[in-house]
Design goal:
The complex is a heterotrimer of chains A (about 120), B (about 290) and C (about 250). Chain B is of the alpha/beta class. Chain B has helices spanning about 45-50, 95-105, 110-120, 130-145, 160-180, 190-195, 215-220, 230-235, 260-270, 280-285; strands spanning about 5-15, 15-30, 30-35, 60-65, 65, 80, 150-155, 180-185, 200-205, 205-215, 220-225, 240-245, 250-255, 270-275. Chain B folds into two domains: about 5-210, P-loop containing nucleotide triphosphate hydrolases (Rossmann fold, 3-Layer(aba) Sandwich); about 220-285, BMC (bacterial microcompartment) domain (Alpha-Beta Plaits). Helices cover about 35% and strands about 30% of the residues of chain B. Chain B has a six-stranded mixed sheet, sandwiched between helices. Chain B has a four-stranded antiparallel sheet with strand order 2-1-4-5, with helices on one face. The relative contact order of chain B is 0.14. The longest helix of chain C has about 50 residues, at about 140-190. The chains are: A mainly alpha (about 120), B alpha/beta (about 290), C mainly alpha (about 250). Chains in contact: A-B, B-C. The interface of B and C includes residues 44, 79 and 105 of B.
């Protein structure tokens, strides 16, 4: 769990993504209470209004839900939902920037594919 | 109960010098206001006006529609915490707690004792025998535990070590959640506290030069980075508040209420766009000798 | 603090308690000095010719002047910082000063009474030939009243000096000292029967007024007018004074 932010995206979006990460990684399970705004303010050193904005976004998407007077909880099927969304935006978020960089460097598609396979093999072992 | 503070066209002169120049703003319960300005910008003077320690020469300050100055109902609800000179104070924290308990309607004695333990200052030792950092922690305790509707902290961190400051910030956030009030934090050390501010008042050369929600204020500013010639070309029609160059590259900081359009323009021209921290914005807007015109 | 909370009452009682503590120390010291000076009685068996009440009067005037100065610097900022209005602090100071004058004189008369009561055991009986206020020696109650009013005026004088320095800096401080010299000279001229301690030449114009011929109530009335004027000046200097954040 990283408490740092980059300046390319609004902070509340990055807060949202950090909570999503915890859900995707399984640190936060379904129907589990997510950390309170105050806890997140302490941890991330981000204003509570910004945290709320990120949480509201997740609530609107149905990833988390609110129990009055108790806090926010992970919704049923949240992990699946987040994964689906991330798959849908995978091309935009990761592949496109990669291809742009490859183009800048003059790498062919085959060379890129080769590199991908190399990284995968490296990971295995 | 909600409290609203109205400051209208307030000016103050001191020995023929203008110390506060036609300042107007409002504050409401539940919000934390960051009052930022360089040394001598008038932060402490403004806070002393907000506490009724002084009467402005012009303009007025009202709390819930009533004049604040010498108002018997309002004065107990306003609390200014400042780095007081305790050199001659041989009383201890305990006796201060007793007085506060008597004169402050919502003072929580148990919470004050709890904070004393947390911040690590002895309550039975004369206050002039405490270190500067401990005196500041004691001040912070009085401010948090008095739970006044309007709580003003003037450079409260004075001499506190990093762990105590951190503990104070944590308690501050919790208190604002448990007992929402109008909180003001005056500081010139912005980077450490900026996340506490919901709203920013920037004071410069006796005037209020910014009065906006923190995120909105920050979003007015952005950086553009790219080749020097291109940056110059694109930013020709923009309000540049700062620029720096490094090996043919140039970074310019734009401050513009119409930032969405300008940002898009810059991005479409192929420049890199970045955010600006509140600290940097503060430096750019107030920096440079006597400051920005 | 409940709805029935009265800041004036609280301030009055807080200031009174603090200053009465100082007053008890002052009184004890004076009493010890008085008894030591009278120690000769043990050897000569000759009754001393000054009562405690007469003996303590002059030191008390100086004492009241001094503690009129001190609390302003020690407590004004302190209580205003705790949310008390200038108005309430002012009223609390004035009332506690009056109570202090009553307290000090009450203490004096109580101890005098005690000395008198145990006379059969000790054989010690200071007899006053010299009264604190010669004019009204005829009646103890009148003497008590007169003494308290004078002490109250001396306290106000100290308070004027405090405000002078607090509000109007060094120059105002010295101006306030001049005002106080005049105020106290008038006070002494009214009460002290040619025994003016502050400005000596007041003694020479005194026969023109001849306060000795005036009835007691007129003297009290004159003193109260003087106190009223002093309090008005004090309030005008206080109501908008900036609080020093020291």
């Amino acid at each position: 769990m990283d408490a740092s932010f980059d300046d390319q995206k609004p902070i509340f979006i990055q807060i949202k993504e950090k909570i999503e990460d915890q859900i995707v990684n399984g640190y936060l399970q379904e129907d589990e209470k997510i950390p309170s705004t105050t806890q997140m303010v302490d941890f991330y050193k981000v204003n509570h209004l910004t945290i709320s904005k990120g949480m509201n976004l997740l609530a609107d998407e149905g990833v988390i839900y609110k129990k009055r007077g108790v806090g926010m909880f992970v919704a049923e099927g949240a992990q699946r939902k987040v994964k689906q969304q991330r798959k849908a935006s995978f091309a935009d978020d990761y592949v496109r920037p990669m291809m742009q960089e490859a183009e800048k460097l003059g790498l062919s598609e085959d060379e890129v594919n080769h590199l991908i396979q190399q990284v995968r093999r490296g990971d295995r072992g | 109960m909600n409290t609203k503070v109205d400051v209208r066209d307030v000016s103050l002169n001191y020995r023929k010098m203008n110390v506060i120049d036609q300042v107007s703003f409002t504050m409401e319960t539940g919000k934390t206001y960051g009052l930022i300005g360089r040394n001598g910008a008038g932060k402490t003077t403004l806070l002393s006006l907000l506490t009724g320690f002084r009467l402005p020469d012009a303009g007025d300050i009202q709390v819930n529609g009533e004049p604040l100055f010498e108002n018997r109902m309002m004065m107990p609800k306003v609390n200014l915490i400042y780095p007081a000179d305790y050199a001659d104070e041989s009383d201890n924290a305990k006796s201060y707690f007793e007085t506060a308990e008597k004169y402050r309607p919502h003072f929580d004695r148990a919470y004050a004792e709890e904070l004393a333990e947390k911040f690590g200052f002895p309550v039975k030792k004369p206050i002039n025998k405490l270190s500067t950092g401990m005196q500041s922690a004691f001040n912070a305790t009085l401010g948090l535990a008095a739970r006044t509707e309007v709580t003003l902290f003037d450079e409260v961190y004075n001499g506190m070590d990093a762990p105590t400051r951190e503990a104070f910030y944590q308690e501050f956030v919790r208190e604002q959640e448990r007992h929402p009030r109008i909180m003001v934090l005056s500081t010139h050390l912005v980077s450490e506290m900026d996340y506490l501010f919901d709203h920013v008042f920037m004071l410069h050369n006796q005037k209020l030069i910014a009065d906006a929600p923190t995120d909105e204020l920050q979003s007015r500013a952005f950086t553009v980075t790219g080749g020097q010639a291109l940056v110059d070309e694109v930013t020709k029609q923009m309000a540049v508040i700062h620029e720096e160059e490094l090996g043919g590259m140039k970074r310019a900081v734009i401050y513009d209420a119409n930032n969405d359009v300008k940002q898009k323009e810059a991005a479409e021209a192929g420049l890199g766009i970045g955010a600006v921290t509140l600290q940097d914005l503060f430096i750019y807007l107030t920096g440079g000798g006597n400051g920005h015109e | 603090m409940s709805d029935g909370f009265s800041a004036v009452k609280s301030i009055t009682s807080d200031l009174f308690k603090i200053q009465m503590k100082w007053t008890l120390s002052f009184f004890s010291v004076v009493l010890v000095v008085f008894l030591l000076l009278d120690a000769s009685w043990f050897f000569t068996r000759q009754a001393p010719d000054v009562t405690l009440a007469a003996f303590i009067f002059e030191p008390s005037k100086i004492y009241m002047l001094v503690i009129g100065i001190v609390p302003w610097f020690a407590y004004f900022t302190y209580f205003i910082s705790h949310g008390v209005t200038r108005k309430d602090y002012f009223a609390g100071t004035a009332i506690s000063a009056a109570l202090l004058a009553v307290g000090l004189m009450g203490l004096t008369f109580a101890v005098s009474g005690l000395i008198h009561m145990i006379e059969p055991i000790t054989g010690y009986a200071p007899i006053g030939t010299e009264q604190s206020l010669a004019l009204i020696s005829s009646h103890p109650a009148a003497q008590l009243t007169g003494t308290m009013i004078v002490l109250f005026l001396y306290y106000l004088a100290g308070w004027i000096v405090a405000i002078g320095f607090y509000r109007f800096h060094i120059s105002g401080g010295f101006a306030s000292i001049a005002i106080v010299i005049i105020l106290l000279s008038i006070t002494d001229a009214i009460w002290a029967q040619g025994n003016v301690i502050v400005i000596d030449w007041f003694r020479h114009i005194q026969p023109l007024i001849d306060t000795a011929a005036l009835p007691f109530t007129v003297l009290v009335g004159l003193s109260l007018i003087l106190a009223g004027a002093a309090l008005t000046a004090l309030w005008l200097s206080t109501r908008r004074t900036p609080v020093k954040m020291g």
